[in-house]
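Quiz preparation item.
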């Protein structure tokens, strides 16, 4: 028996059985979920109705992630799935689906930020070390120095993001549908949204320790 998306096979709201007045139709079919995993890129093409193509991602390891407040998008490596509001099983099996919370590599964003603002971020603060920050503008021309100095006047970095960058991992939300478009793109969590998911992850961690 194939997967069917019709409602004729279901009972009425009152619990009564419906009459079967026709067989299944091709346009009512459903397919197995992609259950995209983290690994070397592997995408299958699926022909849909009208000759339209779907791209079923079986495995993906990178995606384009957008840093909204800085208007910066970079290709980053997906490291882990940490939270899914719909099903904990998808976290255990590290399945990539829309709206799941993942950890991505912070280095592409850190490199962009330091080049754009000329400020070193994500430095680990160690006790007893008064280490000076690197002068990133030392070898720049006067014009570039003036431009970067002007940018620094409006620079604001969330301390929570700075802590995540120092650990080398950022939290991101997947906005695309890997099983439909074959891509795993999303956006970096920040502000209230980041705070919300960090609380969820801490609560989950406490529950596992009990």
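Solution:
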């Amino acid at each position: 028996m194939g997967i069917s998306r019709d409602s004729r096979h279901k009972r009425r709201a009152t619990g009564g059985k419906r009459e079967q007045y026709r067989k299944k139709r091709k346009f009512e079919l459903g397919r197995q979920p992609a259950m995209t995993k983290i690994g070397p890129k592997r995408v299958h093409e699926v022909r849909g109705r009208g000759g339209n193509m779907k791209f079923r991602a079986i495995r993906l390891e990178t995606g384009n992630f957008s840093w909204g407040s800085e208007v910066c998008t970079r290709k980053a490596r997906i490291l882990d799935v940490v939270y899914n509001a719909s099903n904990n099983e998808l976290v255990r099996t590290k399945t990539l689906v829309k709206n799941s919370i993942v950890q991505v590599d912070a280095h592409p964003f850190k490199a962009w930020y330091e080049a754009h603002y000329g400020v070193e971020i994500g430095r680990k603060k160690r006790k007893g070390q008064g280490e000076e920050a690197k002068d990133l503008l030392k070898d720049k021309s006067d014009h570039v120095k003036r431009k970067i100095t002007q940018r620094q006047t409006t620079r604001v970095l969330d301390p929570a993001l700075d802590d995540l960058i120092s650990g080398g991992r950022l939290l991101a939300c997947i906005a695309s549908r890997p099983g439909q478009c074959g891509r795993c793109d999303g956006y970096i969590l920040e502000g209230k949204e980041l705070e919300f998911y960090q609380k969820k992850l801490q609560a989950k961690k406490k529950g596992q320790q009990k």
